[in-house]
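Appendix B. Raw example, untouched.
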Amino acid sequence: MTFFRKNRCIMPSQLPAIVPKHIGFIMDGNRRWARTRNLPVIEGHRKGYETVDQVSTWCFERGIDMITLYAFSTENWQRSKQEVRDLFEFVKWVLTMDMKRFNEKGARLMVIGQLKTLSQLLQHKIRRAMELTRKNKKGVITIALNYGGREEIMEAVRQMIRQKVKASDVNEETIAKNLYTKGMSDPDLIIRTGGVQRLSNFLTWQSTYSELYFAKVLWPDFSEKDLDNALEDYANRKRNFGK
């Protein structure tokens, strides 16, 4: 099989021998990208979404089955009301107007996080978008929206209490079944752009054995070469999971 991107051809022999099945992306740098260009912050988020579209295609071409994108954290509510309002209006636009692109890509859309605290309209759009892409098989794009890793674990505990799970029955499997990501594999690799080296409450439970890769480039400028550099670095690591 040969993959084509614009004017370049990717042969299987050029791909890393070991490719992660699931990558988590912490998309840092949208605001800085906009501010250095004297643009409104929302323009950085729009440009960042263009990068999401490109990166998801590159990942699926390389045999990566799933990507999870940290779009909005529970801490991001502390940002200006204008930025939050603009960002969620843009999210609504994507969920309404851009589902054709997801279907053309063959991507299934999933959304995780504290969704019940979002507006009823946004919850409806999320459910509808997930249903419209439910049968797509090329890959899975998961959006972490209003997401916090610690809150996810606390909610899992609350659910187990409501289910009256016995203390003796609590194990990793029991907890995993009550997380937002139930049924999903843990990320093999987490890539953070923007030069910051921390996970910022992203997939706290699931990232225990994830390989971490930090890139200085701002997310809107993240390129195909940047992705390949991360994949090459990942392929050269030895993962023994404590053995």
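End of appendix B.
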